Amino acid sequence: MESPSNWKHLRDILLMPFTVTFIVPYLLYDSKDDTLIPHTLTLKLIGWSIAVVGSALFVYTVFLFKMIGKGTLAPWEPTKKLIVEGPYRYCRNPMITGVFFMITGEGLMLYSTTILAWAVAFFIINTLYFIFVEERSMMQRFGSDYLKYKKHVPRWLPRLRPFKLLNS
């Protein structure tokens, strides 16, 4: 089982997370929008910290998709193996959590309520997508292993102790 090429990974990163973390915020940003959020160095540093943590989480999960899952982050090139390693031992969607943190960090760094609203919309859209599309696809691809994983690992809020799928 071979992982998709680095070009396919790059293509999918540019089409999806790059679009939602850079292009959409760029299009939404309006410097006149920043009057509701206090302009403090502390808030800007908190935003940077959240964005850096989100970026690290995103990069790590993309690495796991390539090395363990043998797929990309895109639904048209899904993983071939269920990933129950790293942050996936604590919550089912750490990649989306990373992207959400990146957008939230941007909103705080730029004092932008519009970008923060985009972060909330991104979260809601992905929650609905996971409930109605992704989880069904995972069930079809991974069967009882995914059911067991889904039963024990929360969608968003992380477990305190890591989950271990014994049959993998």
Automatic annotation (TrEMBL):
Q: How does it sit in the membrane?
A: Multi-pass membrane protein
List the transmembrane segments: 12-29, 45-69, 90-109, 115-133
Cross-referenced InterPro entries:
Phopholipid_MeTrfase
Question: From what superkingdom does this record's organism come?
Answer: Bacteria
Location comes to:
Endomembrane system
Keyword Lipid metabolism on this protein? Answer: no
Q: Major place of localization?
A: membrane
Per UniProt, the keywords (alphabetical) are: Membrane, Transmembrane, Transmembrane helix
Which protein, by its recorded name, is this? Isoprenylcysteine carboxylmethyltransferase family protein
Q: Which organism is it from?
A: Niastella soli
Source organism phylogeny: Bacteria, Pseudomonadati, Bacteroidota, Chitinophagia, Chitinophagales
